[in-house]
Amino acid sequence: GYEAMTSAPSSGFVDLFSGHSTQYAQARPQYPDLLYSKIFDYTGESYKRTGLALDIGCGSGQATVALLSRFDHVIGLDPSPQQLSAALYPDTTTTTSKLGKLEYKCAKAEDTKLDAGIADMITVATAVHWFDLPSFWTEAHRLLRPGGYLILWTNSETYMPTPEMQKVRDDFDSKVDPHWNPLTQHVKSKYTKLNVPKDRFINHIYSVFYVPRVMRLREYGAFLRSWSAVRKYAEENPDMPDVVGVLEEGMMKAMNKTATQSSSSSSSSSSTTGN
After folding, report:
1. Where would a tag sit more exposed on the chain, N or C end, judged by fewer CB atoms within 10 A?
2. Can you tell me the distance from the alpha carbon of 228 to that of 108, in angstroms, rounded to the nearest whole number?
3. Could you give the angle at the alpha carbon of 58 between the alpha carbons of 196 and 213, nearest 5°?
4. For residues 108 and 162, is the Cβ–Cβ distance under 8 A?
5. Rounded Cα gap, residues 78 and 104, in angstroms
6. Distance CA 106, CA 8 (A)
7. Residue 144: beta bridge partners?
8. pLDDT tens across 199-215, in order?
9. 163 with 251: CB under 8 angstroms?
10. How far, in Å, CA of 1 to CA of 73, rounded?
11. Pairing relation of β-strands 73-78 and 101-106?
12. Which residues contact 51 (CB under 8 A, 6 or more apart)?
């Protein structure tokens, strides 16, 4: 079964996404299967179809729904009713797997109002940098059962397949980067400076890995437009060209150049072979 519960917005949290929650839900890509494979390789087979998982700071639920095949019960928590109103639900018409119960609840990460010791796993997908960390560590420790897992992850750098495309992305970053909220410095440092308290969370494992992802240019542009820094740039530079539109145009030119070079190389090779 699937349930949703929203309420008035909680106060005292960094809210940069409620104003475009529908766009956010549509534009944010799913996390790769490799990520979940790594998580459950670490936690072991005992976490198949058992227990309760909390996805805290769930936004529109990209990670929340991915946990349903592993847990009997998954609760996504977010302080934004707007985000939860756009939350994702699994398409039960296209899956033959038995899925756990899904709930969404409006709650702050630092004060969930849930009972102590109920969670077998807590996940936080590209969101923990927005939290009041000392308060969150206390709440997460309270919520986890003995032996439970706290799993944190974030996206980091993006690398383009050609130097020309990378230059377009670098030019985009030079314009947008000054408009990131200071809390996103944790993302830039790949979560190495979170200072997770080792007296509360033991056996700390840290891993960095890269996953190839293919996106259509239109999808990539929509993803970038969902960024808080892009929206901030647009607000502070209303007379400047659309920064994502400039990137899309530059990427198209770079891809066309690469395709032309590839075609010329193939033609040259074919001609040489024929001589």
Report:
1. C
2. 20
3. 90
4. no
5. 8
6. 8
7. 119
8. 999 888 888 888 877 88
9. no
10. 10
11. parallel
12. 71, 72, 73, 119, 120, 121
pLDDT at 264 over 90: no
Q: Which two tokens stand for residue 77?
A: 């928590």
pLDDT tens digits along 54-73: 999 998 898 999 999 889 99
- The count of other CB atoms within 10 Å of the CB of residue 254 is 20
Amino acid at 48: K
Show Cβ contacts of residue 160 under 8 Å, excluding neighbours closer than 6 positions: 166, 168, 169
Q: Summarize pLDDT for 73-115 with one digit per residue, the tens.
A: 999 999 988 888 888 777 665 555 677 899 999 999 999 999 9
Cα–Cα distance between 275 and 272 in angstroms, integer? 5
165: tokens are 């495309």
Question: pTM of the prediction?
Answer: 0.79
Which amino acid, one-letter code, is at 187? V
pLDDT band for position 272 (cuts 50, 70, 90)? very low
